Amino acid sequence: MCTVTYIKDADNIFFTSNRDESLNRTLAKAPEWQEFAHGKILFPKDGHAGGSWIGVHENGHIGILLNGAEKAHTPQPPYRRSRGLIMLDLLNTSMPVTDQFERISLFNIEPFTLLLLDTDTKLYQLRWNGLQKSVVAKNEQDSHIWSSSTLYQPDHIQQRSAWFNERRKENKLSDTKHILDFHTNGGIGNPDIDLKMYRSQTKMQTVSISHIAINGRTRQLHYFDLVQNNKTVVPF
């Protein structure tokens, strides 16, 4: 939920998420297909609220969630509904942006950023900051990185973007192996801000890495549970 990269290389698309979460939170379940009103969604299930931070609908929609919007906010629970459940609601429709996000009421929902790749491979950044929504169409032919505003200060977010751009220039983000290396080892040896983070005082750490690889007709979700040291690969 806290660091996401989108990489377009030739005909390949890679969408990767590092989930930074409290070690006190119930562990998530490995990704499985689950039936919804408008089709099946593949996602790892959050052990606390039952939602998710990454999902693939059988119709082709892909969503990845980050905590927070443009800037850090002060949580004010209890909230009406989990953001992870909101993401599944948005995926479970033929037109997530116009049919769902622009119409849905987000009153008393904690701020979030949802990155959506739709069936036409159009990339959107959907944000709710607690007061208003925003929809930004991103260049799907380019590559991007996002870091959660709730965990990383603006200067740290800029530094992480610099690491990302440096690897891109060196052509070290062109396949699954190199991308996972960045999400595992990227940084300067500072666990507070490295891609794979750990903060002993708050018991926050990168608990999993989810990686979507689209190579022509081959489409897979790779899920690495870093707490239990398990790996799951599911085609879609």
Q: What would the principal axes of the Cα set say about the shape?
A: globular
Report the β-strand fraction as a percent range: 35-45%
Low-confidence stretches: none
Return Rg in Å.
16 Å
What is the mean pLDDT? 96
**Biggest beta sheet summary:** 7 strands, antiparallel
Class of secondary structure makeup: alpha+beta
String of helices and strands = EEEEEEHHEEEEHHEEEE
Tell me the number of strands: 14
Termini separation comes to 21 Å
How would you describe this structure in keywords?
alpha+beta, seven-stranded antiparallel beta sheet
Explain how this protein is built.
With 236 residues, the protein is of the alpha+beta class. It has helices at residues 83-91, 96-101, 154-169, 176-185, and strands spanning 3-9, 12-22, 29-36, 39-45, 54-57, 62-67, 112-117, 123-128, 133-138, 144-147, 198-199, 204-215, 218-225, 230-235. The strands form 2 sheets. Strands 1, 2, 10, 11, 12, 13 and 14 form a 7-stranded antiparallel sheet that branches. It has a 7-stranded antiparallel sheet with strand order 3-4-5-6-7-8-9. A hairpin with a 4-residue loop joins strand 8 and strand 9 (133-138). The chain is globular and about 40 Å long.
Briefly say what this structure is.
It contains four helices and 14 strands. By secondary structure, the chain is an alpha+beta fold. The strands form two sheets. Strands 1, 2, 10, 11, 12, 13 and 14 form a seven-stranded antiparallel sheet that branches. A seven-stranded antiparallel sheet has the order 3-4-5-6-7-8-9.
How is the topology of this model organized?
Layout lengths: L2 E7 L2 E11 L6 E8 L2 E7 L8 E4 L4 E6 L15 H9 L4 H6 L10 E6 L5 E6 L4 E6 L5 E4 L6 H16 L6 H10 L12 E2 L4 E12 L2 E8 L4 E6 L1
Antiparallel strand pairs: 1-2, 1-10, 2-12, 3-4, 4-5, 5-6, 6-7, 7-8, 8-9, 11-12, 12-13, 13-14
